[in-house]
């Protein structure tokens, strides 16, 4: 069996993303963690480059990579885009307090939220507030329009509180090994 600490294999439960996999256990060793660390730094590595960095031959590295993808440890590959480079120079964190939190309202709220492309992150929280949103816009005027026309009209919302982002101190950091 795996251990929860030290340098041996670590046991990871795969619960959050796929209810069909609830209870599935994935053993991960130091090589798997090194593969994940390398790909978080550079997701465009070829399998050959990755194998050299983790000191494996190509075939076992490829097998491990496919298993990490199959198990859900790697959920995708993407480009990281600088918001300012595409004209999104304004960012706010929006705290949402719900008027009511019955199942239908939550489903309707979350569905409507998913349809707003300027909401780039959304988390449901325990306690108050109920949700934390990260919202991007071109400028303050564009954010005000988004706030008034879309965010304030979301189902079940009692209160929205915005905090403006001054600067990013830690941004898009890879997960620790």
Topology record:
Layout: E1 10-13, E2 25-28, H1 30-41, H2 47-54, H3 58-71, E3 90-98, H4 103-114, E4 119-124, E5 131-137, H5 140-151, E6 157-164
Antiparallel strand pairs: 1-2, 3-5, 3-6, 4-5
Helix pairs in contact: 1-2, 2-3
Quick structural gist:
The protein is an alpha+beta fold and 177 residues long. It is 33% helix and 21% strand.
Report on this structure:
The chain is built from five helices and six strands. With 177 residues, the chain is α+β, with helices and mostly antiparallel strands. It has two domains: 62 residues, Orthogonal Bundle (Arc Repressor Mutant, subunit A), CATH 1.10.10; 82 residues, Alpha-Beta Plaits, CATH 3.30.70.920. Strands 4-5-3-6 form a four-stranded antiparallel beta sheet. Strands 1-2 form a two-stranded antiparallel sheet. A hairpin with a 6-residue loop joins β4 and β5. It starts with 9 loop residues before the first strand and ends in a 13-residue tail after the last strand.
């Amino acid at each position: 069996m795996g251990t929860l600490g030290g340098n041996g294999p670590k046991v990871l439960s795969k619960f959050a993303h796929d209810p069909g996999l609830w209870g599935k256990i994935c053993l991960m060793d130091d090589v798997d963690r090194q593969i994940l660390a390398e790909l978080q730094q550079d997701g465009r590595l070829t399998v050959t480059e990755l194998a050299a960095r983790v000191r494996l031959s190509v075939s076992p590295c490829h097998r491990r990579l496919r298993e990490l993808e199959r198990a859900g440890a790697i959920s995708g590959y993407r480009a990281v885009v600088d918001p300012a480079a595409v004209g999104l120079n304004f960012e706010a964190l929006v705290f949402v307090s719900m008027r009511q939190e019955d199942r239908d309202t939550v489903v309707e709220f979350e569905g409507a939220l998913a349809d707003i492309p300027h909401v780039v992150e959304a988390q449901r929280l325990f306690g108050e507030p109920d949700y934390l949103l990260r919202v991007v816009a071109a400028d303050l005027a564009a954010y005000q329009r988004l706030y008034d026309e879309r965010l304030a009209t979301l189902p079940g919302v009692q209160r929205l509180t915005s905090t403006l982002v001054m600067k990013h101190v830690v941004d898009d950091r890879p997960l620790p090994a």
